[in-house]
Fold these 3 entries.
Entry 1:
Amino acid sequence: MKFEPVIGLEVHAELLTQSKMFCGCAVVDSTEAPPNTVVCPVCAGMPGALPVINERALEYGLRVALALNCEVRPVNIFARKNYFYPDLPKGFQISQYELPLAVNGWMDVETSQATRRIRIHRVHLEEDTGKLFHHDPHDGLPEHSLVDLNRSGVPLLEIVTEPDMRSVEEVKAYAAQLRAILRYLGVNSGDMEKGVIRFEANVSVRPAGSGELRARTEVKNLNSFRAMERAVAYEIARQTQVWESGGTVTQQTVGWSEPEGVTVPQRGKEHAHDYRYFPEPDLPPLVIAPERVARVRARLPELPNAKRARFEAEYGLTRYDAELLVEEQTVAAYFEQVVIAQRLEARNPKAIANWITGELFRLMKESGEDISAARTRLTPANLAALTEMIAGNAINLNTAKAVFEEMYRTGRAPQAIVEEKGLGQVSDVGEIEALIAEVLRSSPDQAAAYLGGKATVEQWFFGQVMKKLQGRGNPQVIRQTLAEALEKLKHSA
């Protein structure tokens, strides 16, 4: 019997607000700030402390809900989700359940097989937990754990899909596109290594073509695409083997062990009733006016898929180039700034895309810089000027690469670099003819080989001429003049 996977994702994204979800404590980088330094009675769960809803977090939640084509609920309610965990100081989490922020959304993702529509079940607001640090025995101390509450109370948006994904490829495509949308909206940094976006995969398998939903496992807190792909693939293979051998999959929560490459059982899978949800008595129902939703919708930016399609249609870019450029919103903006900086008659978006995705990405990777830092030196106007110099045969491509590196390091204009270093392209036919004649006279063995039928020697002659011109020769002029000289050589032989 053939089995197929059934996968849904729950994504927890910390929101880029200045303060926490229900108190005035600042949101800090929990990987860098000293432990327990940004905590107050509210986020520490002290008795009698009263929460207040963060309006900016609501705004960010609405942005995401609308970008995911969700229906925004006019009234939603915060609830207490009761469970015990050492980094949950109140003994419950303020979240949403029966009346969440938004429902019934969707996202189209593209895979190598087809475009798939992934339905969004719900989007809701909640608060993050604290963070545990586990320590092995040392200095006479037994094995122990410490808790840092700096992250406790940070606004968290949970985005839950329907079980619509049928492959690891679809899971990765959905997760990558969602991360890009969150970054475009300015609500999340997407820094997975710092845990500001975390994935939980609900995985089951069933007989291919059937509509049943079998017992599933929930793989918790996957904080990288690699971990998510490996964990989901492992669970698909493990569960398939269990069913094929006549066994039964146990519904449970598992963790992912990256070093061993296996999932590890943690606890039985909870159901909603296990959390004993009830309305948060210290927070009133949240009423969202249609006018507010309309204002947020009007301010949504152009999202990655729409921008990619526009780049293909408007600039004639390939799908590959467009995807590379729109992956980072700041890179896409830089590309368009360079296009605008070019003179209209010399406009060449494809050439600009090649420079950005090729040389610029290479130099950024080597230096560890992002586009925001790089563009302060390599301004759109200067990159546009460089491409125009190439198109106008002022410099050739090899020289342009050297000039580009100089521009990246120093911020100088390409015209100044070319003039100072004498890098202008040599296109004078008379000068090139003289050099070709010199090369042919000084290379009798290679000339004989060419006349004997070894056509590849022509490229060697080309290289010798270019070497004499220190790489500044016009390739088209050299090739044409060389071809004419070789043709004369044949007739004179």
Entry 2:
Amino acid sequence: MSHSDIDISEFKSKLLDLLQGIVSFEQEQGKADSTVQLDQSRLGRLSRMDAIQVQAMADEALRRKQIYRQRIDAALIRIENGEFGLCCVCGEEIHPKRLSFDPTVLLCIDCANSQEC
């Protein structure tokens, strides 16, 4: 396997598709992003707690999408710089199957395993 075995245009296309999905999610979230509205048909503390919990889950989903967007942006920069598919720690090639699973991955499997310890 060599770095040339990686189809950069395929990964770039996949990353751009992922980015578009996140942008769409952010736009939809922006439309729905507002103060917690209480269900007036349900009264009491539990309905307020439910509404606050739903809002917290939506906020967390948006936060995770924003982090993933940053990872996608970084992967696109690595493509432009000719560094895509190379481990950020050891500089070795990341296996194409690993990149296919997650094209934003920064580490080869060996470095990823050593960082978990």
Entry 3:
Amino acid sequence: MYIGIIEISMHIPYAASLKQKRSVVKSLIGKVQSHFKLSVAETGDNDLWQRAKIGFAIVGNDAAFLDARLQKLMNYLEDNAEAEITDVFKTVEFYGDET
């Protein structure tokens, strides 16, 4: 089993409150979940108004396929995020028994 993970850090310069920030984050999470059918959650910077970390995960049996899906996700995020993506962590790892 392979697990593909992306965690992005975002800067939301116009957010003047946690409510505005969460509106941006929830909107992005909803769009991604409906478009890609993967797991997604806010993973950090929860109490900062202008920063957010969001994690995305997908599971499958083909590392190349997962890597391609994650690349499509990154392209989608770059085109649709209502904030500046400042950092990206991406990995596809194997978990389980090799037998």
